[in-house]
Amino acid sequence: MLEVLVGTGPVSFEDVVAVARHDARVTVAAEALDAVAATRRHIEKLAAADRPVYGVSTGFGALATQHIPSEKRAQLQVSLIRSHAAGSGAEVEREVVRAMMLLRLSTLASGRTGVRPVVVETYAALLNAGITPVVHEYGSLGCSGDLAPLAHCALAAMGEGEVRDAAGVRRPGAEVLAEAGIEPLVLAEKEGLALINGTDGMLGQLVLACHDLGVLLATTDVIAALSVEGLMGTDRVFAEDLHAMRPHPGQGLSAATMRAVLDGSPIVARHRDDPDCPIVQDAYSLRCAPQVTGAARDTLVHAMLVAQRELASVIDNPVVTPDGRVESNGNFHGAPVAYVLDFLAIAVADVASMSERRTDRFLDPKRNHGLPPFLADDPGVDSGHMILQYMQAGVVAELKRLAVPASADSIPSSAMQEDHVSLGWHAARKLRRSLDGLARVLAGEALTAARALDLRGLGSAPATAAVVSRIREVVQGPGTDRFLSPEIEAAFALVSSGALVDAAASVTGPLPPRP
């Protein structure tokens, strides 16, 4: 069984994916629990003192000036969680909730939040039991933490609210915790605040998105190579020395992938060696593919750097410093994460737009160099891939709307105490939809390029032939019109899993690394 150790340093991208998607077991390091206990003693001293401390003996947000007597401070934390568990809308995906809980657990285990060890242990127990709090789409403004989503998680740890059990059944949290032998948390001073004051929701989604986009961009290079071949294009524009003249790392990697995949192609050789070849210069969607996908690769590298820094961060307010001070701060503001989430959505929209343009060229007899209209078996009787391109166009239109930045907006809250917010959670939600759309557009291009190569019958590069063969395992070759939607879904699964990259690499050997 996979296992992730928490409390010895930042969790990794691989840790987040393992816990979120593959139910890896979480273990908290013993030394981390010792550090948590030591920090807790500072909070207990402050709780017994007369001086007001935010989150310990005061209210929250605009109510921070409200002093809370000692006998009501435990109720303060419980009330905080209940009132902030105010999400609404669709249920958030299980993998997002698990990623969010793991990242909050990692911060709690840092020993800088002031919670008791039992809080850390309870979150680990929930993850290991496969218990997933029901979290809703709306409720976070991406500042002061992903408040509502994290509050729903904390509510479940208290044995309240609703959860999904290990079998995925939605049930009352109290029942499921009792069955798992997990004692519901009874919150003490500062603990409710520590459970909700973090960027864990948007960060978890960023980490998952980075993982998925790495697969999709590698796949984009492979599919673009199929399209170059299927449209009788040239590989000369992907020459290493040409790309060295503009030394963006991602561009060089994308060009190297396309060279490797096209190596040995008789169609590409014809373009290069036949003096009668009528194609003088390929369209931008073919010729500039490495420049666009490569720029997206570099954008992803930057986003991953931001995510790595955030994974190494302790996000809470107030925070307990190593010398025992309890200090208010603004580290919960989601701007760094929100910006790169939006940046990735722009790149995703552009990569998908170029993919759709390549597909469209295949379908137009004026531009596809000898293929039938819409790649139809009997044009007029059959429509071929005509409406597949409509699907792509609709998705691309949606991706352009999703590329509008969420982080450029802000809506004040909490009686103007929280007068600027990041909306990073919203940026994360739309990026997830963007990635789904990109995979669907690429699936359409893969099906179309494979069909075109089969129709040409001129042979293929060994690597592109392997990719087409992989597609043919789940989708039939050219023929009369048939129910197309299941074929798109089958290709979507290949694209999302990275199977087409693996097929090409089975011939070429390891391709340039995914970001």
Automatic annotation (TrEMBL):
E.C. number(s) listed in UniProt: 4.3.1.3
Listed GO CC annotations: cytoplasm
Biological or metabolic pathway of the protein: Amino-acid degradation; L-histidine degradation into L-glutamate; N-formimidoyl-L-glutamate from L-histidine: step 1/3
Reaction catalysed by this enzyme: L-histidine = trans-urocanate + NH4(+)
UniProtKB keywords: Histidine metabolism, Lyase
InterPro entries per UniProt: Aromatic_Lyase, Fumarase/histidase_N, HutH, L-Aspartase-like, Phe/His_NH3-lyase_AS
Subcellular location: Cytoplasm
Listed GO MF terms: histidine ammonia-lyase activity
Lyase in keyword set: yes
Predominant location: cytoplasm
Family named by the database record: Belongs to the PAL/histidase family.
Protein name as catalogued: Histidine ammonia-lyase
Gene source species: Propioniciclava sinopodophylli
UniProt gene name: hutH
